[in-house]
Design goal:
- The complex is a heterodimer of chains A (about 170) and B (about 110).
- Chain A is about 75% helix and about 0% strand.
- Chain A is mainly α and about 170 residues long.
- The relative contact order of chain A is 0.07.
- With about 110 residues, chain B is an all-alpha fold.
- Chain B has a single domain, classed as Orthogonal Bundle (Helix Hairpins), CATH 1.10.287.3510.
- Chain B starts with a helix and ends in a 13-residue tail after the last helix.
- The chains are: A mainly alpha (about 170), B mainly alpha (about 110).
- At the A-B interface, helix 1, helix 2, helix 3, helix 4 and helix 5 of A face helix 1, helix 2 and helix 3 of B.
Chain lengths: ~170, ~110
């Protein structure tokens, strides 16, 4: 991937990610999140992680965002009215996030490997779906079963939570 | 050429944006979306390290991508449960703002 495409997709991810937080209307936030996830999946593809890039689009831009938009529609949420902003709390939250960012940038600047470019892949074909599948079912079989049970429990929990109480 | 640090920087900025959203916003749906941003920032740095560690067979280290798979699965389950709690809360209180849910506030 040419380097300028990396910056295009990185800026797309970051700008629309910031739009998620800054938008007052939840629908606009949700649509910004979709664009941010599409940029992120392009970054995954640029790192030769085709499988992860595709499930990013399928699971996040598809399933999860439909869930978000459906809930926003179900609850009929409007853009929130202008509250009196608690400046102290907002400044505190932003300050903590800024300190975290400074710490991350400082750590990356002093990280020797961060200045190196990615080594070339010498394999003739990158069959990452096969490799990830083999790892999942051989080395990570028990975690895979546990995640399956987790998803089952989440499904049952969601049904129970959203069931109306019998009067 | 893009370096490993560029990807880590994008990941760190995205995580900070999500963290700021969780700290500052008062709408529960936006807080859940910001949580998703943070999880995805972590995924980006995992995939970058996976590509950085090329093994002797000339392929990326796929252990990290398996981990990304698990993170995505758990995040999807978490969003489903979180939104179900949100709907249940909205039925009782008719609000999605954390301002109005302060019974446990010290």
């Amino acid at each position: 991937m040419p380097p300028f495409l990396f910056w295009v997709f990185a800026l797309m991810t970051l700008i629309f990610g910031a739009a998620v937080v800054l938008n007052r209307n939840p629908v606009a936030s949700a649509l910004s999140l979709v664009v941010s996830f599409l940029g992120l999946s392009a970054l995954f593809v640029s790192l030769d992680a085709y499988f992860v890039g595709i499930i990013q689009v399928l699971v996040y831009a598809g399933a999860v965002m439909v869930l978000f938009l459906f809930i926003i529609m179900l609850l009929n949420l409007q853009a929130e009215e202008r509250h009196r902003i608690n400046w102290l709390a907002s400044a505190g939250g932003l300050g903590v996030a800024l300190i975290l960012l400074i710490q991350v940038v400082f750590t990356i600047r002093h990280f020797e490997a961060a200045r190196q470019t990615f080594p070339a892949l010498s394999a003739s074909t990158i069959d990452d779906v096969r490799n990830i599948g083999a790892l999942l079912f051989r080395n990570y079989n028990l975690p895979l079963q546990i995640v399956g049970i987790l998803v089952l429990v989440a499904t049952i929990g969601v049904v129970l939570l959203s069931k109306r109480e019998p009067r | 050429m893009t370096t490993l640090g560029d990807y880590l920087l994008v990941s760190g900025i995205l995580f900070s944006i999500g963290f700021a959203g969780v700290m500052v916003r008062r709408n529960l749906i936006i807080i859940l979306m910001s949580l998703e941003l943070m999880l995805n920032a972590a995924n980006l740095s995992l995939v970058a390290f996976s590509r950085f560690r090329v093994g002797p067979d000339g392929l990326p280290n796929y252990n990290a991508q398996v981990f990304v798979f698990f993170v995505i699965t758990v995040a999807a389950a978490e969003v489903a449960v979180g939104l179900a709690i949100l709907v249940a809360l909205f039925r009782i209180r008719q609000t999605t703002s954390v301002r109005d849910i302060s019974s446990l506030k010290f």
